[in-house]
Design a protein that fits this description.
mainly beta, ten-stranded antiparallel barrel, 17 strands
């Protein structure tokens, strides 16, 4: 029932955005008509169809600030393939897991992923609303741990570790007449000349980790203080961010975009100790960082490129320990644009 409600919520948000765009179309002073056409070319009225490849990452790490020992967990990342389409600012994607492509469950264990999201790179605002659920984590290569015998180092798989993330972000683009936030990522526009913009945003999130027992493997218990050894933990975060993004155009159709948005947040941290079941909570100032990178080739009829987005949060627990969690997404895309008006006129 809860997940069905989330689906209805995201569809409702998308419908509101679509309805607003229909009304604005009748307004000749609509913001989409206020761009500097020497810098930006819009394909919003064209049908954009693309093939995509997606790899999503989800990691969290716990650091004992007294002993400086650290442990990191990650889901078993899978490569998904799919198709996407967009028209008039409304788009959708369908992704699937190709058989024979992801065959490493025997090594890292299986991970379950469920995600809903609605987002847009508009002229003035960038927004993102999302829900993610992951189950099944393994220790990463960066922090391999000894097995129960202590003789070999290996990945420890925990099928019982679950993670839920719910969040939203809103970012204002200052140079919205000459810089397009859509061009390097949604590809519904083209940046014709190099340009950048100052960014100002706000964000909030709910993050929760839950396990059936102690989050640390038995072979690592002695390296962490008992006070930081929990079975459930999480944070409620609200903050503001300020950063900059820039798109470099070269060779007329090639582009590179760099996007960095650091933030400062108020965080309510909570945890339940695995030994005495006592709950602990603490309010502190923490940090966040969102970074993006995009590189590609963008012509009028077709485009090709790659992009990487990463969001990272830093949570301090009363100076005893710190929790660091991050989500990333790598994308490859190849697409074509179709002028439906021109095609319809030819048919008529």
């Amino acid at each position: 029932m809860y997940r069905k409600s989330l689906i209805i919520f995201f569809l409702a948000v998308s419908s509101c955005v679509f309805g607003g765009d229909i009304n604005r179309k009748r307004d000749t002073l609509h913001i989409y008509n206020k761009i500097d056409t020497t810098y930006i070319e819009s394909y919003r009225d064209w049908l954009n169809a693309k093939l995509i490849g997606v790899i999503r990452t989800n990691k969290f790490s716990i650091t004992d600030n007294i002993t400086q020992n650290k442990l990191e967990y990650s889901i078993n990342t899978n490569a998904n393939m799919g198709i996407g389409m967009s028209f008039k600012g409304i788009g959708f994607e369908f992704q699937y897991n190709p058989p024979g492509l992801n065959n490493d469950d025997y090594k890292f264990g299986a991970s379950k992923q469920i995600a809903f999201a609605t987002n847009a790179n508009g002229r003035r605002f960038i927004y993102d609303v999302f829900y993610r659920y992951n189950q099944g984590y393994h220790t990463t290569s960066t922090y391999k741990v000894p097995n129960d015998t202590g003789f070999t180092m290996e990945h420890i798989y925990r099928a019982d570790i679950k993670n839920t993330t719910l969040g939203a972000e809103l970012v204002y683009v200052f140079n919205n007449k000459r810089f397009s936030s859509s061009a390097p990522y949604n590809l519904t526009q083209k940046q014709k000349k190099s340009a950048g913009s100052l960014l100002l945003g706000t964000f909030c999130s709910l993050y929760a980790i839950d396990a059936d027992s102690l989050i640390f493997p038995d072979s690592l218990r002695y390296k962490f203080k008992e006070e930081v050894q929990f079975k459930t933990a999480g944070s409620i975060t609200w903050g503001i961010s300020c950063g900059y993004t820039y798109t470099l155009i070269f060779g007329k159709n090639w582009f590179v975009n760099i996007y960095t948005l650091p933030g400062l947040a108020v965080q309510q941290y909570y945890s339940t100790n695995a030994y005495d079941q006592k709950s602990h909570s603490n309010t502190a100032i923490g940090g966040a960082l969102q970074s993006r990178f995009s590189f590609g080739y963008n012509k009028k009829r077709y485009f090709i490129g790659i992009s990487w987005t990463n969001t990272q949060y830093f949570v301090n627990n009363n100076k005893m320990s710190s929790l660091n969690y991050k989500n990333g997404c790598f994308r490859f895309y190849y697409g074509h644009r179709f002028d439906l008006r021109k095609m319809l006129k030819k048919r008529l």
